[in-house]
Amino acid sequence: GTWYWNRYPGARCDVESMFYSYGFDEELEQEWEWTERYPSQPEILRYANHVADRFSLWPHIQLNTRVASATYDTEKNGWRVTTESDEVFNAKFCIMATGCLSAANEPNFDGMETFTGRIFHTGRWPHEKIDFKDRRVGVIGTGSSGVQVIQEVAKEAAHLTVFQRTPTYVVESFNRALDRGDQAKVKAKYQDIRAAARKTFGGFTAVMNEQSALSVSEEECRERLEAAWNKGGIGLQFTYNDFGFNEAANKRAQDFVRDKIRATVNDPNTTEKLLPRHILGCKRLSIGTNYYATYNKPNVSLVQLGDNGIEHITQDGVISEETLYPLDDLVLATGFDAMTGSLSRIHITGRNGQPLTTAWQAGPQSYLGLMTHGFPNLFTITGPGSPSVLSNMLPTIEHHVEWIGECLAHLREHNIREIEPNVKAQDEWVAHGNEVADKTLRHGCNSWYLGANVPGKPRVFMPYIGGMPTYREKCSAVAAAGYDGFELTES
Length: 491
Ligand code: NAP
Known about the structure:
By secondary structure, the protein is α/β, with parallel strands linked by helices. Helices cover 30% and strands 16% of the residues. The protein contains 14 helices and 18 strands. The longest helix has 21 residues, at 393-413. It is globular, with a radius of gyration of 23 Å. It binds NADP nicotinamide-adenine-dinucleotide phosphate.
């Protein structure tokens, strides 16, 4: 879904293609050829379609179907799923694979309906080619989607105005074509590399340097950061082990990126606006290709939004700080109602008719990010409370699929009709998740991890930040102990 909808110009994954791929089938991984270090959206979509073809999945998939509700039937111990076209499906188990970043956050700016130009959201991009030639384009938002779309639209538009609420840290991708030799090296030991990646915090190939940034001189720290920068990608975060925990250490990484911005951007005013001030990594690090240099182009200007944000949209454009910016097109790169949005947009009701939105009123509650008390037989893939967005999503999804698959086999084998986490196990898991998150610097900014980008959403750190190895171990131990923490009811 992600790669079907996010087809805006420049859409690309920031995990290396050879590892942003499935590891369950050796023939698949040996045969498929990735063309670039970081895969573009069309290439990932081709890969997903190829996997569906290769494993004959299409007969099991019903496209163009929006699920409206999922209701637990306590008598029958099963789920009743309805679609917006009034189809009804009954199933004993229901697995929500609705994604972490799939419910678009579309702010309803005052006067937006009067705008006479075109409006696009990066996460709901049209399928036909959108031409920005000779047009005055506005982009609202400078997160990972904004960064990518800005770089591309700047190449085409007559003028691009970027409306920035919070400047972001962008590291260079140094994307490049992958030749057969590059691929052969990985393919010769694919499974070994994947096994090693599983032992890292996020399931990525970059390995954390287990040293404090403060244990070395500033000069040495800079040299290492420079080397990491030149390798490209998110590995910069793993240069020292305390960037995520110690503000003084983190400041060294912040200063390094701020100096990169100063060295790249020509206009001092624009430079000042682009300098991020928050903890690096507190909001998701963005990966770009000449992002900061884009602001040296004569057809690009940057508007720093004031406290009132976008004040008004008129038929002609955007008004901020009483200035009208005339536009033909408006691109909303305003992100997602992350982690819970795709679930709360389906009317899910569990035991005793309790809506999931009520159970999660104060923030998502789950056991292992896999199941929620009061919602028996309902699984979530990469749900809140699991490492999900803090990890390499494809292997992480595979892990959940395998765990759920084995769980269902166990239930069938033991003639069990209902599985549900008990309150104690769930409360302990939620408390543990909060305790680990509190030890990090992630609470220090308004990120979507905390739900802070959506007005009114409770502020809770939603993904599990204890790392993939700890998480995998816990999931395996729970299963090995006969699904410890779950109530299993026999038929
Ligand atoms: P995002 O990180 O939430 O960024 C949204 C941007 O819109 C932020 O700059 C935000 O400002 C701004 N914004 C939101 N509401 C606004 C409003 N009412 N007025 C003005 N500005 C507003 O969303 P995203 O860029 O779509 O990225 C979401 C996540 O998707 C990423 O963090 C990443 O995990 C994933 N992603 C990955 C890639 C990749 O692999 N390269 C690409 C795209 C997305 P504030 O910062 O002030 O809230």
